[in-house]
Structures are given as C-alpha cells and as structure tokens.
Amino acid sequence: MTREQGINQVFGGGGHVVILGAGASIALTMRNAELNGKRLPSMDNFTEVLELQDLVDKVPEELRNSNFEKLYGNLHTYNPKSEVLLEIEARIQSYFGNMQLPDAPTIYDYMILALRSKDLIATFNWDPFLYQAYTRSKEFTKDKRPNLSFLHGNVAIGYSSEDKMAGPAGYQVRHDGGLLEPTKLLYPVEQKNYTDDEFINTEWDRIKYWMSKERGSVRATIFGYGAPVSDIEAVSLLNGAWGTPDQRAMEQFEVIDITPEDILRKRWDGFIHTSHYDISNNYFGSSLAFNPRRTSESYFNHYQPLTPSESFRQNNPVPQNFKNLKELWEWHQPLLDAELEAESRNQNDDK
Description:
By secondary structure, the protein is of the alpha/beta class. Helix content is 40%, strand content 12%. It has 14 helices and eleven strands. The chain has a six-stranded parallel sheet, with helices on both faces. Helix 10 links the parallel strand 9 (219-223) and strand 10 (252-256).
C-alpha cells in the first residue's frame, strides 16, 4: 500500500482509546521542556519539587511518608479539614496551573493530531499540557479532534454542578454566574471513591463506555501509566469496561513505557489476548506515530488478507523533527483533507 493510498483510506468504524499516566507527561517534558523550566514531580519527589517541606513539617510525624500520595491519605484520614491539607491543595493548583507548553511541537501536539473524533484520550495527569495541546490544535483541525477525559481532575478544567458542564477552569457559563470551578485533584490513597464526585464520575462513565465492547474500539494504548497499587480501583474499572482477554480476542492492546517488556506483559495480562499486543519504549515507536489519524484503518488492514497491507505499520510514519506547529500541521493536512472529502461523499450518498 502506498502512502497516498493509506492517506485516502478513511473508515468510519473502529476507534482508539489512549490512556495517559505520569510517564507520558514526563516523556513530553524530557523531549520539550516546560516553557519556564518547571519540573514534573513523581509522588516520591513531590514534596521537594513543589517546595512543600514547610507544610510537611507541620504534619504529625506518625503520619508522614516519603511517598506524597500516602502522606496525603494519612493526613486526610486524620483530619480531612486540616488547614495544612487545604494549603497543600492550593499550592498544587498554583504550581500545575501555571505550567505552559513550549512553542515547539510536543508529544501531545502529535497525539492530538494522530487521533480523530471517533477516538478518546483519557488522562490521569493534573498538568494542563494535554488540554493546551488540544486547544491550540483547533486552528488547524477544524474541530476534528479526539474526545478527552480527565480521570483524576485537571488544573485546566473546571466544572459547574448547577449547569452540568465542564470546560476551561474559571469560564463563566452564564451571564448571571455559573462559573466552572476548579476540579478536585487529590483523593485519599486508600479510598479513591471516584463515583462520589459528580465531575469525576462523568469522566469515568465516558472512558468505560469508550473501552466497552459495545462502543467497538479496536485499539487501546496505555502510555506511561504504571497501574500503581494505590490505583487498584482505577485499574479494576478499566478492566471491567474492557472485559476479559477472551472477550477481546481481536482487539489490539498497546503499551508505551520504558519498563521491561516481561514486566509490562505481566502487569497488563488481564487486558491482553495471546499475542495481540504491542510494546514500545517511546511515542514514535507506537501505532499513533506509525499511522497518525489512520490507526483503526491500519488495524483493519492487518486482518484482511486480500488487502495489500504487509507494511501496514509503516504506511505513513510521522517525522519527528518539525521546527514549529505550522510544519506539523502542514504535514497532517493531506490526512485531514481526505477525511473531509470522505465525509462529504458520505453526506451526498445519504441524500
């Protein structure tokens, strides 16, 4: 199959779900540093990076832990209305809320363009990078972008329970009020009751539907999410939506992670049917980079023997060296043009 044939092959079915963990945003900043040089913390260096030691010193010694998530859980159990707890939450909102993508194309800019409106990106991350990439892509994509879910809240996203609406934090929904209030970020490690929060519950309902057999997504990609012990409930919800390996005998499961393959294969065993998986240690080795905006098409080709698709993984790999967003967008233009043309044909056929 030639590159041109791959570009012009536009299917309506299928779907791709991408789930982002902390490793995805860390990979982004390792490739393109945050605009002001801010670091992304892990739970083990969280106190140091966000300069929270003065607050940690006020926490009773028996509640402290080197892992920030566990420390927060201990403090929340001890006193959920603690002034220290409220100040920690405020500083986290401030630190992450002031982060900015650099002007250069980042991994998230590539990812937004690699997917379409029949796809979903769900993130566990608090940083605003995914939403910023999503927002600045609108100029090019004519809103033909993937759907988003923020599974642990996000500093860029607000929610109005009165209006049942999510959007940019601080945005005024109505002239008489209706502000989109910042979403909750922190949950006690031992009791992440996602369904107790209206916004979070809605976000989880979205990804559970998108991962279900009913929705018909043919690909799932896990990028930099380690399925930590503290997130047993999250992994259980995802597994319940995806189903057993026997129920997903044809779908393709993909992991982007620097962890050794044998560990990843064991970690995600409950999602994988036999050999129907791919593992890459970087974004540009994934299906998203091999066939941007055609990940479902490449999947269907692989299982159709009559289709000349021997090189399906390498039909149209995206270059890694764009100097600016304009170059990135221009490279994707033929793909978007083909989709708009296919959409127009389908509308004419329906008349």
